[in-house]
Write a structure and sequence with these properties.
542 residues, alpha+beta, Phosphorylase Kinase, domain 1, Transferase(Phosphotransferase), domain 1, TATA-Binding Protein, 3 domains, four-stranded antiparallel β-sheet, 17 helices
Length: 542
């Protein structure tokens, strides 16, 4: 793919950001109509030639994603589809911009959310998936990366790159394509993939709509517990083998944390035999699903987004008294960390592992502004994440203490009351930007060295050359390419940028940008690094 491939010149919109998300042959950018500054929407750009040559997909599959998304994108819990077009190089898809960001980026790893909040998002997930199925479409890749939020916190299902039509005019068909992400995929999909030889004259197949039901069950488990029940549903996983042997009555400690009333719902949705799996009607009749929930309005949307956002944020916590440890599943070996693309990692998406070097696909990195202002003015950046009050504050650190992501470092549990009093929308308390970030007063070189040592401690491969340390606003970028505790690929960048404060002071911001992988696993990785670097982390009460 050439860096000179221009974007289509007939686009009916203009981009207002660089990249807000990317795959190996597609990127997503924010855009607005040419003649207006609103509404803001997202545009997925697919480089057709690169995708077909390196992405192991066909032009027909690209067209299928467009067709199926347009067919199902008219539901409150599904990312809305707007328009599409193409030229000889690019295919673009305009869709709803999920202003609330990733749902699972705001869920604490190994903790999960409260039972009521889990029910809200499970209710909305079932609402969206059942609508998709009513249109004869199965998603086939339901996992945290593909679950986003609107600006008021409601769930949005995204990414139909693996979707398929399983029913048309009353006729059903099965699938023979191995796809999905191993921790969330149903066991019959992996059986299909492993039995590549033909049985008689037909390939081993599965019912894609029943695969979605299984994945919804795993997602509910993750909401309640903050972890997946196994690495993959195969005999290589002792957790799955025990689950299968005990008919869903596993002795694993994670299952003991699931509310008793929800256990039978999970067993029904995650029945090993696909034909015995719960239908949507059975899910909706289950007592856990129908229990009263003050957060749910009669129309299935969030009743009071500010209250729910406040309760969500209370669960995000980093305990600096703890030692950095792996998840409850054990740590990865250094060999695993190096072998990031082995095994079932190929299942996690239809995208190739080879990165695109095109500048258009670089992660969004807005320029910082050098600040030479009076001490009565707050410090800011072009991509500042400080709350609105920062512009009126006479103390930068007071404003910083109220930045939502700083609450996770506070010694006092809860959200600053001034933040909740001022909030008017869900995203005022739980903003779209990632919470995997921290601030530091350490000198740049020392902080970069400390983070490098932490990565080495976690068996993350480091470059042979020391990272470049700039003298301006952008200090350094550290590449992360490793595997998570589920042996899945985890790729991203650690960006270190600088604020210039009054009286020659400096403050560094460290952002962990996930490019590929499970958001809960990325948060778990972030927490490990933070605990290893705790002496360099700025804390609100410090």
């Amino acid at each position: 793919m050439s860096q000179l491939d221009p974007l289509p010149n007939n686009l009916p919109f203009r981009f207002i950001s660089r990249t807000i998300g990317r795959g190996a042959y597609a990127s997503v950018k924010k855009a607005v109509p040419l003649d207006s500054t609103t509404p803001v929407f997202a545009v997925k750009l697919i480089h057709k030639g690169y995708a077909i040559k390196h992405g192991r997909i066909s032009a027909k599959q690209i067209a299928m994603e467009v067709s199926l998304h347009s067919h199902v994108g008219q539901h409150p819990n599904v990312i809305e589809w707007f328009a599409t077009d193409e030229d000889h190089v690019w295919r673009w898809i305009a869709m709803e911009y999920a202003e609330g960001g990733d749902l699972f980026d705001k869920i604490e790893a190994d903790v999960g959310v409260s039972e009521d909040i889990a029910q809200v998002y499970f209710y909305q997930l079932i609402s969206g998936v059942s609508f998709i199925h009513s249109k004869g479409v199965a998603h086939r890749d339901l996992k945290p990366e593909n679950i986003l939020m609107s600006d008021n916190g409601n769930l949005k299902i995204a990414d139909f790159g693996m979707a398929t039509m399983f029913e048309y005019r009353g006729q059903k068909k099965q699938s023979a394509t191995m796809c999905g992400s191993p921790p969330y995929v149903a066991p019959e999909v992996l059986v299909c993939g492993r039995q590549e030889k033909k049985t008689g004259t037909e390939l081993v197949k599965y019912s894609p709509e029943l695969v979605d039901i299984w994945s919804c069950g795993v997602i509910l488990f993750v909401l309640l517990v903050g972890n997946t029940p196994w690495d993959e549903p195969t005999r290589e996983s002792w957790e799955f083998v025990e689950y299968k042997k005990t008919n869903g009555r596993s002795s694993d400690d994670l299952w003991k944390r699931v509310p008793a009333e929800a256990l039978s719902l999970l067993r029904g949705m995650m029945n090993i035999e696909p034909k015995k799996r719960f239908s949507f009607a059975q899910i909706r009749q289950h007592p856990w699903y129908t229990r009263h929930n003050e957060h749910l309005a009669s129309d299935g949307q969030i009743n009071d987004p500010i209250i729910l956002a406040t309760k969500m944020l209370e669960n995000l916590r980093i305990d600096f008294s703890q030692q950095p440890t792996s998840s409850q599943r054990g740590s990865q070996s250094s060999a695993d960390a190096m072998d990031v693309d082995s095994g079932f990692s190929r299942l996690s998406s239809t995208q190739p592992e080879a990165p695109i070097s095109d500048v258009l696909f670089d992660w969004e990195r807005p320029a910082l502004r050098t600040l030479a202002v009076s001490s009565t003015q707050p410090m800011s950046r072009a991509d500042a994440t400080l709350p609105p009050s920062a512009t009126q504050s006479t103390n930068f650190y007071d404003a910083l203490a109220e930045e939502p992501s700083m609450s996770q470092f506070s010694q006092t549990p809860g959200v600053p009351i001034t933040l909740t009093q001022r909030a008017q929308r869900f995203k005022d308390i739980v903003p779209a930007h990632s919470f995997t970030r921290f601030f530091s007063h350490m000198p740049p070189r020392l902080l970069v060295q400390m983070i490098g040592d932490a990565l080495h401690n976690l068996n993350v491969p480091l470059p042979s050359q020391p990272p470049y340390i700039g003298q301006g606003e952008h200090v350094s970028t550290l590449k992360v390419k490793t595997t998570d505790d589920r042996k899945q690929g985890l790729h991203g960048e650690i960006l270190i940028d600088k604020y210039f404060l009054p009286e020659s002071q400096e403050l560094l911001e460290v952002r962990f940008i996930k490019l590929k992988g499970d958001p809960l696993e990325w948060r778990r990785f972030f927490k490990k690094v933070v605990l290893l670097c705790k002496d360099g982390v700025y804390k609100p009460e410090a």
